[in-house]
Write a structure and sequence with these properties.
Number of strands: 0
Radius of gyration: 16 Å
Largest sheet: none
Low-confidence stretches: 1-7, 83-90
CATH class: Mainly Alpha
Order of helices and strands: HHHHH
Number of domains: 1
Structural class: mainly alpha
CATH architecture: Up-down Bundle
Length: about 160
């Protein structure tokens, strides 16, 4: 069953989403995005490198916080990530080969980050008001603030 519908409870159709499965999905999306952002950072033109470094540092912090949550639930976040991480790296390499990594990558970067925001929204909606929810809310707000801060960096 595809995991993109954000219900993530295939054994019980119509049941509420599984909060832990949604955290795993969020971690997978963060892992994939972090791979792409890491490639951006490594290949970025000097003027765009601080933007890529900012997103890389943000997602590294977010994955560490989410990893702690998942390990507390007995999940190994090191196994998360999907083929999309490889796709992101390949897309960055192609973009670099064709025209360089500069502010022109902001539009596809924003699209990738929207995918992460969707996973945050689903995980937050399925998580009761707890410290975990407050961390997820804060991490989502940090992502929006980072997007807003760099919105004008689109070359």
């Amino acid at each position: 069953m595809p995991r993109n519908d954000m219900t993530l409870n295939p054994d019980r159709p119509g049941a509420p989403p599984d909060p832990i499965a949604l955290l795993v999905e969020l971690d997978t999306r963060l892992a994939d995005t972090l791979e792409g952002v890491g490639a951006l950072r490594d290949r970025a033109e000097p003027g765009f490198r601080p933007v890529a470094e900012d997103f890389h540092a943000l997602h590294t912090r977010q994955r560490a916080a989410l990893g702690a949550m998942l390990r507390a639930e007995g999940h190994d976040p090191a196994r998360d990530g999907s083929a999309f991480g490889t796709v992101h790296r390949a897309a960055v390499a192609l973009r670099d080969w064709v025209g360089g990594i500069d502010g022109g990558v902001m539009t596809p970067l924003v699209q990738a980050e929207k995918h992460v925001l969707q996973a945050y929204d689903a995980a937050i909606a399925a998580t009761p008001e707890t410290d975990r929810r407050r961390v997820l809310d804060a991490d989502r707000a940090d992502l929006i603030a980072t997007l807003d801060r760099h919105a004008s960096d689109d070359g």
